[in-house]
Amino acid sequence: MQEELWEDNNPAITYSSGEWARTYNSKYRGSTFMRTTQLGDSMSVKFRGSSIKFVGAEGTDHGTFRVDLDGEETVLDGYCCGQNGEIPRVTLFEAHGLGTEEHVLNVTNLAAGPWGSTLEVDLFIISPHSVGRKPIPVFGVFLVGAVILLLGVFLTRRCRARKLTAAYQMLPVRDDAPARY
Length: 181
Prior knowledge:
Elements: E1 4-7, E2 13-15, E3 21-24, E4 32-36, E5 42-47, E6 51-59, E7 64-69, E8 72-77, E9 86-95, E10 103-111, E11 119-127, H1 138-167
């Protein structure tokens, strides 16, 4: 199964009203990302999958943000790189082994770092659940076994009947026929 890439403008992503703005930069996937500097701004994404990665950026003007996945909260720090630095396309959060139900991931711009309170959303990478065979119900296994058993009994009796008939079959013998050896 191939991963799905959900860009920052995917309709499944909802941004709170606030200072979110679409920004253009070729260093980001699709050359766009969503950016806010307003503390309290948040975004939400609903998805189904076995794992999710939140890709954004780290930088000197980034602060801390809270990630809430299905009620489990984690606080992360987007600050890095000393003064005037930034690293785009960084996996800021990831979760694996998720169930088949719908999940909700919320990200909230929580607190300012030393030089700013920026939060950037580039994309989400979602891995679908592997599609496996559904287990056969016990009744189905029993039914298949019974059919195979009955078929085996039928074929065994039929073969025995043919052997018995062939073993006692009388063939006409002609006295005037030449012997073939």
